[in-house]
Give the backbone structure.
Amino acid sequence: MNGRALWLDRSPGEVRGVVCVDGEPERLLIEREDEPDRARLGEIRRGRVRALAKGFRGAFVDLGLEQDGLLKLTADAPALTEGQAVEVEVAAEARADKAPSLRLRGLASGAPALLTPAPSIEERLRALAPDTTITTGEEAREVADEAEEAALAVRFALPRGLVLTVEPTRALVAVDVDLTEPGASRKAVLVANRAAIREAARLLRLKGLAGLVAIDLAGEGREHEALNATVKDAFAPDQPGVVFAGISRLGMLQLAKPWRERPVSDVLTAPDGRLSARTVAARLLRGLEREGRADPGARLTGVCAPEVAEHASRHVAVLGPRFGVTAELGRDRLSTDIRSR
């Protein structure tokens, strides 16, 4: 499969969109019906200045949500005072313990409120590839499942002995490039580093990772000039806002990429690093749906941990009366079963 392809999977309580380029997932978008209200990329909201932050020329804005937004002010922005109502656009979603970033649209009046909702996943997919048909159905579900697994993976084995390891830390995203072929020539190392840069850019988009990125290239850091064009081309889809710091003498490629969406791992995992109860519930519901199609007459029950059942039970009715969910005390969060009854 060559070129760009779009996929849309709808399951009980969840919608997933995937953008693939040349058969590999490049972006994974996830929306869940029962998520708490939060600031989403592209929303326009009315908020109220809670406090000024003169240290970085900005303000904390009450959006009427659990978490305030962080508004950075440009030099030509109007002077703000505490309590001032403002109209803002969400420029970057919250992640971990970081507040959402806001862009000032102007002064306003009134209480905090949502003025314009964020684009839907289908709208975002169409914006990324306007002339591409969106594929749905079983094939889309398979692609979305594979994209989830890839987004959560750390180590990626590529052709010709190339191995990438992508690990986010609190300070930066570290990408390690290993070339396992012994005695590779300088030309082979250059080819490998070009492939690694392109793959690293794709994986960062798939995982929703940004900020400071350090890519430890293979070899001794030669042929830097030959890699500059590859770097700019690989990260072109992330513009505007990407800043390249060049490649050091030790072969470390450094760049800064603006945060926009929350990382996929924040959506799919819990603070302990394992899949969250909500993610396990979504997978259980998709499993029930799959088993129900395979055996149209069966009455099926998903058995799971109580915390998973709490989420799954909110959406199982969409599948129909022959499906149910049962909580089992003491069961591990990741352990689920589907039983006939």
User: Anything to note?
Assistant: Residues 208 and 263 are 4 Å apart (CA to CA).
